Amino acid sequence: MTRTKRSLLATAAAALAVTGTLISAPPASAADPAAAEVSPHAAQTIDNIGASGAWWVNDLKNFDPKVQARVAKLLFSSKGLDLSNYRYNIGGGGTAVTTPSRAPEDFLNADGTYDWSRDKGGRTFLKYAARYGVEDLVGFVNSAPAAWKTNSQSCGGYLNAKNTADFAKYVADVTDHFAEQGAKLDYISPFNEPNNSFDSCGQEGMLVPVDQRDDIVRALGAEQRARHQKTGIIADESSSTVSFNTEVPQWIAQPGTAQYVSKLAHHTYNNPGDDQLAKINETATSVGRQPWATEICCFGKGGTGWAQEYDPTIDGGLNLSKIIYKDFATAHDSAFHWWVALSEMIGSDPYAKNGDGWNDGLIYYDPNYATNGNQTLYFTKRYYALGQYSKFVKPGAVAHNVTGAPSGVDVTAYDLPHARTSSRGGTPMGKWVVVVNNHNTTDTSLNLHFNSRTPVKAQQAVRTSATEDWANVTKPAVGEEGQVSATLAARSITTYVFDQKGHDTTAVTGARQGKQSGKCLTADASGAAISTCTGAEAQSWTYDVSGALKGSNGCLTAGSSGLVTAACADSAGQRWQLNANGQIVSESSGKCLDVSGQATADGSKVILYSCTGGSNEVWTKQ
Question: Are 265 and 294 in contact (CB under 8 A)?
Fold first, then answer.
């Protein structure tokens, strides 16, 4: 059961082992100034992409071992999703929980000893994940064991403050046990959706007030440190971005807490807009930790908001891909975790949309399997949509923002830096992965420019659509100047993989026009303002690999007192992200370039302000 970390080169090669014949495309034309552009400056590094093993494992323990093995292969192998993260539910015992499959066993006996034979289903798939070499295993807790809860149940109530140390010891003991079994937990999440008590008892859960979260984190962190465990802590798994953005800064600022927090975890059940997603980045920047999107499901009825529906079609697949795109491109999350990998909430028809089921799974099984013996697995397009990312965008991939995409098209680009050295030496080779969602009901042309001095070669194109599942399709044409040309099938998700010799990039130069004012970002002595677009030197900005915006007077700089112009020095305050939605975001603060007071007159000041999603924060290249 030894876990072996796979190299990015090996996993990329495995991901491309999809059968099919490729058809050559005509040569691409020279660089098109109107093309979408891959930013020369790197954004966040991707840690992992995964899903949860909650609940369904308690049903699957009753399935034929051959079906269990097939499920593991579908989730963890290179022929399946090739997940780089798996979330194992550390159960709270299920006391008083009314849904049997949502009542996972804990390991704690009444006398304080452990029974490690419990939780057969959970242990089975955790071991499978470890055997397949899933890069990051996360243990997450919905409820502490009932004996330590204020209501003596696994749903509702709080963790008794006097049992905080007991709980920390328990989680550390579980971590040690699985490490000895060859399934090392890389991260622990000690509480989940802490604002929701789940006192209806349909599942496990517990309230964790803001002023208790830091106590639990410190207790667990200290216990881990005393044992020399190399397991990170992620928190606080808020169910909404609003809670995350308002509450994380409160508990993590308590003395001695931040040192134990490896990543910040949030859910997106409030269907956040660009303002809230950008605020995640600002919150994470303010505390110096990368954010992870660790849970989402159950959208439907044509949108990405919470709604009851079972939808196995490309509509559901595209909605999932839209959420991943937004999390990576606007929130700058470093991880994306779907809720449950499998579900029995299939409703009245496993092959068609219906209002009786739920979009909580990727693969489904018959809820009546125990009485009718049906162990058939039913696939959704969400399964294949997640795979368009998880099979190709591997841990260590570096996201690069893509601006200027056609309407109805989402584009994200990922550089795989560790794939750069050939195993036989010689010229270093790079790999780029580009994932494209076409939400349009018609085929759409995409021209994409890599801003590269070195040749880019198309290696593979894989597509999921209404009629295709990870199908090999025509490779895009690539011109001499790093220009890629492709035709995107209607309502589809396509992943392109490119080789690149060397890694030189060119800077992007041009004016930036405000959407609301129609005026251009203009350098002045104190920083920047807006003025009528004239093509003047003060309106020309060069954006380079360092993330600097260089104007006529120097580099635009986010200082302690606001925006200033200063000599270019590659300082933190001089690094900017040009988001796909037009936001220009300071890497040092997470705030946006904003026209103060939504003014439109020439000379109106440009300031740093929390990203609101307003049109006075949208800038397009001229």
Answer: yes
Same-domain check for residues 116 and 222: yes
Per-residue model confidence (pLDDT) at position 496: 98
- Choose the final residue of a domain: 373, 390, 407: 390
Residue 465 contacts by C-beta under 8 Å, 6 or more apart in sequence? Answer: 314, 471, 489, 490, 491, 492, 493
Look up residue 164 and give its two tokens: 């905080």
CB atoms within 10 A of CB 406: 16
pLDDT for 618 equals: 97
Strand partners, 432: 415, 498
Same domain, 297 and 413: no
pLDDT at position 17 is 39
Assigned token pair, 46: 């991707």
Strand partners, 499: 431, 457
Q: Tell me how far apart the alpha carbons of residues 338 and 50 are, in angstroms, rounded to a whole number.
A: 6
Query: Where is 244: in which H helix or E strand?
Result: helix 241-252
**Can you say how many angstroms the Cα of residue 518 is from the centroid of all Cα atoms in its chain?**
33
Is residue 155 within 8 A of residue 103, CB to CB? The reply is: no
Q: Is 230 exposed, middle or buried (0-12, 13-18, 19+ CB in 10 A)?
A: exposed
Q: Find tokens 């579900």 and name the residue.
A: 343
The whole-angstrom separation of Cα 126 and Cα 131 is 9
Q: What is the pLDDT of residue 9?
A: 38
- Per the structure, how many domains does the chain have? 3
Reduced to 3 states (helix: H, G, I; strand: E, B; else coil), residue 161 is: helix
The CATH number that applies at residue 427 is 2.60.40.1180
Q: What is the pLDDT of residue 419?
A: 59
- Can you give the pLDDT at residue 501? 74
**What's the predicted TM-score (pTM) here?**
0.94
Domain boundary among 365, 390, 415: 390
CB-based contact 604:517 (threshold 8 Å): yes
Burial of 111 (0-12, 13-18, 19+ CB in 10 A): exposed
CA distance 618 to 611: 10
* 577 shares a domain with 488: no
Residue 3 lies inside a defined structural domain of this protein: no
Residues 248, 159: Cα–Cα separation, whole Å: 19
Q: Helix, strand, or coil here: 179? A: helix
Counting beta carbons within 10 angstroms of the beta carbon of residue 341, is it exposed (0 to 12), middle (13 to 18) or buried (19 or more)?
buried
Does residue 360 lie in a domain region?
A: yes
CB 495 within 8 A of CB 433: yes
Q: In what order do the strands lie in the sheet with 508-510?
A: 508-510, 541-543, 549-551, 554-559, 562-566
Q: Are strands 291-295 and 261-267 parallel, antiparallel or unpaired?
A: parallel
- Tokens at 24, concatenated: 């050559």
pLDDT under 70 in the chain at which residues?
1-33, 418-429, 502-503
DSSP 582: S
Q: In this predicted structure, what is the pLDDT of residue 421?
A: 45
